[in-house]
């Protein structure tokens, strides 16, 4: 009866003996750890659940003392080398002679909560930076207009053409600074939304990247044909995806090695998925993955801020503008990076209302 009850729990439960040999997993643990219990019985716990030496020592300490403990926000490595972010509780099972016969380990995954927390932080930081830039732009553009106007008036008063050249420099540089401020503000118009196929957008971006890279980069496509049409501004989405893809292209072309340079475009439909704090029935996920050198860890947290760039000749505006565009489409861009694998995930809800008519998704 106890086994039947535990098998029906949604909490992942693992039982190990005093030598940390696996004796039992319930179906929830099989799903979470992505293993088959028939194959894993009799193996060491480290085969499916690996942490540092201190954590293993804590398990042996619980066996000797008989005291339960809980570890929060642990990052463990599974058999398939994936990382699992979770809390877990270890409870010693006392036998007939008052010694610990085995340990029950209850696992509570926190990947989803961690992702939601990171997304909330990313959204809040982006909104804060947008407000800061908006205020800064207002303070810059007001005196800038006065400087430009004064330079025009002075230019009319001069008869010497050489002196007019100086005022023309002031006017041109004022215009250049105004354009930079406008770019900092991101898209100045609301999206002109319509029903569109996201793969058509990606195909356009792919063509542009192939032309700009002069065929030096292999483009790999892995599309999910089940994704329905989304509601969006085609021009803005092309620009947002192109900014991300162009960053990947530039990182690959600057890499001085002989390996095959690749960019992968992957699309997937995600059901009952949360973006920020809002849950959506259906979400379109677009992944842009490259095998370049990766993004330095300190840069990852500020990657979507305006004027932040890892390249000497970069403006730091492309990713900030892309994030603004995707935000206008109620989505978000996330980034995960390590050497040989940098992945930008663009997540956008697929709306259930299309052009005033309900659409089944």
Automatic annotation (TrEMBL):
EC number: 2.7.13.3
Domain Histidine kinase intervals: 135-352
Pfam families: HATPase_c, HisKA, PAS
Keyword Transcription: no
Signal peptide region: none
Known catalytic reactions: ATP + protein L-histidine = ADP + protein N-phospho-L-histidine
InterPro entries: HATPase_C_sf, HATPase_dom, His_kinase_dom, HisK_dim/P_dom, HisK_dim/P_sf, PAS, PAS-like_dom_sf, PAS_fold
Entry keyword set: ATP-binding, Hydrolase, Kinase, Nitrogen fixation, Nucleotide-binding, Phosphoprotein, Transferase, Two-component regulatory system
The UniProt record lists the keyword Transmembrane: no
Function, as annotated: Member of the two-component regulatory system NtrB/NtrC, which controls expression of the nitrogen-regulated (ntr) genes in response to nitrogen limitation. Under conditions of nitrogen limitation, NtrB autophosphorylates and transfers the phosphoryl group to NtrC. In the presence of nitrogen, acts as a phosphatase that dephosphorylates and inactivates NtrC.
Protein name per UniProt: Sensory histidine kinase/phosphatase NtrB
Organism phylogeny: Bacteria, Pseudomonadati, Pseudomonadota, Gammaproteobacteria, Oceanospirillales
Chain's gene name: glnL
């Amino acid at each position: 009866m106890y086994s039947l009850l535990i098998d029906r729990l949604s909490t992942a439960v693992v039982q190990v003996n005093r030598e940390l040999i696996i004796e039992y997993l319930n179906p929830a643990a099989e799903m979470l750890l992505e293993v088959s219990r028939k194959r894993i019985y009799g193996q060491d716990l480290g085969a499916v659940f690996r942490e540092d030496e201190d954590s293993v020592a804590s398990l042996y300490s619980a066996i000797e003392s008989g005291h339960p403990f809980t570890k929060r926000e642990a990052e463990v490595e599974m058999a398939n080398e994936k990382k699992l972010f979770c809390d877990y509780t270890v409870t010693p099972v006392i036998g007939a002679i008052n010694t610990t016969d085995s340990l029950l380990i209850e696992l509570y995954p926190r990947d989803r909560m961690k992702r939601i927390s990171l997304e909330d932080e990313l959204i809040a930081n982006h909104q804060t930076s947008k407000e800061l830039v908006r205020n800064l732009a207002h303070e810059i553009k007001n005196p800038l207009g006065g400087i430009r106007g004064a330079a025009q008036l002075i230019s009319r008063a001069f008869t010497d053409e050489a002196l007019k050249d100086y005022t023309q420099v002031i006017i041109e540089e004022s215009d250049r600074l105004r354009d930079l401020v406008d770019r900092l503000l991101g898209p100045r118009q609301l999206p002109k939304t319509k029903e569109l196929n996201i793969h058509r957008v990606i195909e356009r971006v792919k063509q542009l990247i192939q032309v700009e890279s002069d065929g030096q980069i292999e483009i790999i496509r892995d599309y999910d044909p089940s994704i329905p049409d989304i509601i969006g501004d085609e021009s803005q989405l092309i620009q947002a995806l192109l900014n991300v893809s162009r960053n990947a292209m530039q990182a690959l072309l600057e890499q001085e090695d002989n390996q095959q340079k690749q960019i992968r475009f992957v699309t997937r439909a995600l059901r009952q998925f949360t973006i920020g704090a809002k849950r959506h029935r259906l979400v379109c996920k677009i992944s842009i993955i490259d095998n370049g050198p990766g993004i330095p860890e300190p840069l990852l947290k500020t990657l979507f801020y305006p004027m932040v760039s890892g390249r000497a000749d970069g403006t730091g505006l492309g990713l900030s503008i892309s994030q603004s565009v995707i935000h206008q489409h109620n989505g978000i861009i996330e980034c995960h990076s390590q050497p040989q694998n940098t992945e930008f995930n663009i997540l956008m809800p697929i709306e259930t209302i299309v052009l005033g008519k309900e659409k089944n998704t």
